[in-house]
Specification:
The chain is mostly helical and 458 residues long. It contains 22 helices and no strands. Helix 7 packs antiparallel against helix 8 and helix 18 packs parallel to helix 20.
């Protein structure tokens, strides 16, 4: 049995759905907290744990965070379904001439788009890969279609280090760090936390941009080489139809829903308000979730050209947010138990005891990659693992921006192993996980080497 078949078999046999995993992790955390807490007075002890859990599930600040992440995914998806992006995809598709340049034409744009927005990159890469496959079939161009599908998924290995990365854009919000750490017991370090950590120190830092450029170049060269060396595959695809709006038979107020003028005015008002409100922050390269979502809202309405087209795209995109909507509160509950029971301090002390200021970012990277297999959500992972990362870093005097990006790198790289976020792509491309895994695993190895080297050098 090949390596990719073994991995696929393990995931199918031993990993239930992400929601079930979140429930099982909740049970496990409760059991650990029961034995970790100093007071072991039976039922009263259990009631305390349940209270910590309930407080975490309905943490107002984290629920806002969940909604912000949902909007990032939805609005990114909505942008892909607009007419201008459709035309861009079709223009790129017509440049395909062989398997190597097809792989490059899918991988590089997907990586660049995903750095801006992961929801946009995920669907953009999927549709681009599908249309490249259709074009190659219609023109009789031999390509390796599973490789092309893997290229369309490559953006998920750079997203968390990009502009829509959950951890770096959330810590750029004033007060988030204090909110995240306020209930950590016996932590005298909260007063030492900065009000916020600007994305100019994380996403837009010279070392992060350099690492992204190296990863993008390395993956581009790798897929070009793979396109040369791999055998073409048979492609059986029907034409993927972009959404269209039927404007026939409109009456009265219905015309407002289809009015390009109304949509353009509203979208431009949003963009003007965005510039007025956020221009100072833009100049300092400090991006927050609200900034990103406000900009994408205005841009999406303008690009769709009518409220009807925009809302149709929202309806199609909203299904992808089901996991965030229902799973995030469970992860917040896990964090509530860990904080309330004091587990965060114990785990943080353990990492500090086995680490140095040099090795802590590496341990953070590796642990984040492992956690991502079980918690396939960057936002959920930050809610659970963020306090541990912050406390460990402060105890050892490690740069907070570097520690946050170490978590981001680890979380994103094992997306190439964990097929959860590949499900939309697999549905659009009609490929199977085992077909793209051989290539995404190679992406993961290359990315791991680059990110660990970067954490050691910078």
């Amino acid at each position: 049995m090949g390596l990719t078949k073994v991995i696929e078999h393990i995931f199918r046999r031993f990993l239930p759905s992400p929601f079930t995993i979140a429930v099982l992790l909740t049970f496990l955390t409760m059991v650990m907290a029961f034995f970790f807490m100093e007071d072991t007075s039976g039922e009263g002890h259990l009631f305390k744990i349940l209270s910590f859990w309930e407080n975490g599930v309905w943490n107002n600040g984290l629920l806002v965070f969940a909604y912000q992440m949902m909007l990032i995914l939805v609005l990114g998806h909505v942008l892909v379904l607009s007419k201008p992006v459709e035309l861009l995809i079709l223009r790129i598709t017509k440049l395909v001439s062989n398997s190597s340049n097809a792989a490059v034409l899918v991988a590089l744009p997907t990586l660049l788009v995903s750095f801006f927005n992961w929801g946009l990159g995920l669907i953009f890469g999927a549709i681009l890969a599908r249309k490249v496959g259709e074009y190659a079939k219609s023109k009789g161009i031999p390509i390796n279609y599973p490789l092309i599908g893997a290229c369309g998924y490559s953006g998920l290995m750079v997203w968390h280090g990009g502009i829509s990365g959950s951890a770096p854009i959330k810590v750029s919000e004033p007060g988030h760090l204090q909110e995240l750490m306020k209930d950590v017991p016996n932590s005298g370090m909260i007063a030492q936390l900065p009000e916020s950590i600007s994305t100019s120190l994380t996403v837009f830092s010279s070392w992060n941009l350099l690492l992204f450029a190296i990863v993008a170049l390395a993956i581009t060269l790798l897929v070009y080489f793979l396109g040369k060396k791999t055998e073409p595959t048979t492609i059986e695809l029907k034409a993927y139809e972009f959404q269209s709006v039927d404007k026939k038979g409109l009456k009265g107020a219905e015309k407002l829903d289809y009015s390009k003028g109304m949509a353009s005015i509203f979208g431009l008002l949003v963009l003007i308000a965005f510039m007025v409100q956020y221009l100072p922050a833009l100049k300092s390269l400090n991006i927050t979730p609200n900034m990103l979502n406000f900009f994408m809202l205005g841009l999406a309405v303008v690009l769709h050209g009518s409220f009807k087209s925009f809302l149709m795209a929202v309806e199609e995109a909203i299904g992808d947010t089901a996991g965030i909507l229902i799973q995030f509160p469970l992860y917040f509950g896990i964090m509530g138990i860990m904080v309330g029971s004091g587990m965060i301090n114990g785990i943080s002390d353990f990492f500090v005891s086995i680490s140095t200021s040099t090795t802590l970012p590496i341990f953070t990277f590796l642990s984040a990659g492992l956690v991502n297999i079980f918690v396939p959500s960057g936002g959920g992972q930050w809610a659970v693992q963020g306090p541990l990362v912050l406390e460990s870093a402060m105890q050892l005097g490690v740069s907070l921006p570097k520690s946050i990006m170490a978590l981001a790198y680890g979380d994103q790289i094992t997306n190439m192993l964990q097929p959860f976020w590949a499900l939309p792509l697999l549905g659009i491309t009609k490929l199977k996980a085992k077909e793209i895994l051989p290539y995404t695993l190679l992406f993961m190895v290359v990315g791991t080497v680059i990110f660990i080297s970067g954490l050691l050098i910078f």
